[in-house]
Amino acid sequence: TATREVTGTAPVGMRPFDVDVSPDGREVYATDHDSFDVTAVDAESLRTRRMEVAPYGTEGGLGSWLKPHYAVVRPEDGKLLLPFEGERLAVLDPRTGEVTIEPMTANTHQHGAALAPDGTLLVVGTG
């Protein structure tokens, strides 16, 4: 708001690392690191739904490094791109909750992600 006041809250998963907005602005996505999921929040009603994103599984629980950290929203279809350890790219369709996995070649821990406005370049910070 113009006065920066909190107008509502919504419960999300454990230890959210990132937040993104759908191309149409109707949903907000919290990337929930310690619960291996993404929470979609309806921007108007604040209703939530959880979508698991765990291409390596959830073994190791809170001690696992193999959790979602950051996401970007692909502008042409609204799918979320979530890099995992530079080895796998989880592509989450927030309409269906379906996750497909694509290979990556960085093979290192990620620290941030950005997508070019036309969706042709995905940049992942590693280190």
Automatic annotation (TrEMBL):
Annotated source species: Streptomyces sp. SID7499
Domain of life: Bacteria
Name listed for the protein in its UniProt record: YncE family protein
Entry-linked InterPro entries: Host-pathogen_enzymatic-act (IPR051200), N2O_reductase_N (IPR011045), WD40/YVTN_repeat-like_dom_sf (IPR015943)
